[in-house]
Amino acid sequence: MLIYTYGQVEEKQKALQLRRRGLSIKDIASKLGVSKGSVSLWCQEITLTARQVAVLKKIQIEAGNAGRIIGAEINKQKRLDAIARHEVQGKEKIKNLSRRDLLMLGIGLYWGEGVKSRTGTASLVNSDPTLILIGYRWFQECLGVKTEEFNPYIYISEIHKNRENDIIKFWSDYLDIPKSQFKDIIFLKNRPKKIYENHNSYYGVMALMVRKGTDLKYEILGLIEGCKNS
User: Fold this and answer.
1) Is the terminal CB of the chain with fewer CB neighbours within 10 Å at N or C?
2) Distance (Å, rounded) from C-alpha 122 to C-alpha 114?
3) In what order do the strands lie in the sheet with 123-126?
4) DSSP string, the chain
5) Sign of the C-alpha dihedral, residues 148, 154, 160, 162?
6) Nearest-angstrom CA–CA distance, 157 and 205
7) pTM of the predicted model as reported, rounded to 2 decimal places
8) CA 18 – CA 12 distance, rounded (Å)
9) Tens of pLDDT, residue by residue, the chain (230 residues)
10) Rounded to an integer, what distance in angstroms lies between the CA atom of residue 169 and that of residue 205?
11) Residue 3 CB: number of other CB atoms within 10 A?
12) How many CB atoms neighbour CB 150 within 10 A?
């Protein structure tokens, strides 16, 4: 037989009143400052109406959704903090690239993104402006290619045809290559089903081609083979 003190009896009566109003065990325990176990024991004989059960279930679902949203925001911030931390660490580790660092980086870029067929000229192909800029530096500083020897061209969907001048101007300014050296843009016929938010900030796929660069490509392929056998 359980014996309650006056304070416990008062708490139990309040718990019963709150339970009859349809509050959850957790909320009652929080309001009264007692354990959920005690509230559950006190209120075990009270049966909630179907409407009260439905209300509690709705509250639980909404609380779960809110919890998931909060959890997602917390995880998002953790990811952003981790990215920022590793960016700082990466900059500290890399610092300034030496000539050999740039040579090896460029070989890796060309190995992954360059034209490697035995015919045709040397060309680095990608849509990432920063990658193309690094490749441009690599061609110049490590392989001795002069600015006037580049003959770049661009692939992009025909839905960007009205932006032709802006696209060429972007790449010309970004790489500091005169517009006159660019070949005509190649507009692709496959029209996408939707217009993306980055429509006006997308500048297509750049093929950074070196004019009459067949021998240069053989040199690059030789460097790649050197890496394979190292």
Assistant:
1) N
2) 7
3) 123-126, 205-209, 153-157, 186-188
4) -----HHHHHHHHHHHHHHHTT--HHHHHHHHT--HHHHHHHTTTPPPPHHHHHHHHHHHHHHHHHHHHHHHHHHHHHHHHHHHHHHHHHHHHH-SPPHHHHHHHHHHHHHHHB---SSS--EEEES-HHHHHHHHHHHHHHH---GGGB--EEEEEGGGGGGHHHHHHHHHHHHT--GGGPPPPEEE----SS--TTGGG---EEEEEBTT-HHHHHHHHHHHHHHHH-
5) positive
6) 10
7) 0.67
8) 10
9) 454 555 578 888 888 889 888 888 888 999 899 998 899 888 888 888 888 888 888 888 888 777 787 888 888 889 989 999 999 999 999 888 899 999 999 999 999 999 998 888 999 999 999 999 999 999 999 999 999 999 999 999 999 999 999 999 999 999 999 999 999 999 998 766 666 677 889 999 999 999 988 999 999 999 999 999 98
10) 14
11) 5
12) 21
What tokens were used for 209?
Answer: 């081609």
Identity of the residue numbered 93: K
- State phi, psi for 117 to the nearest 5 degrees: -65, 155
Q: Which residue type does 108 have?
A: G
For residue 76, what are its two tokens? 């998002």
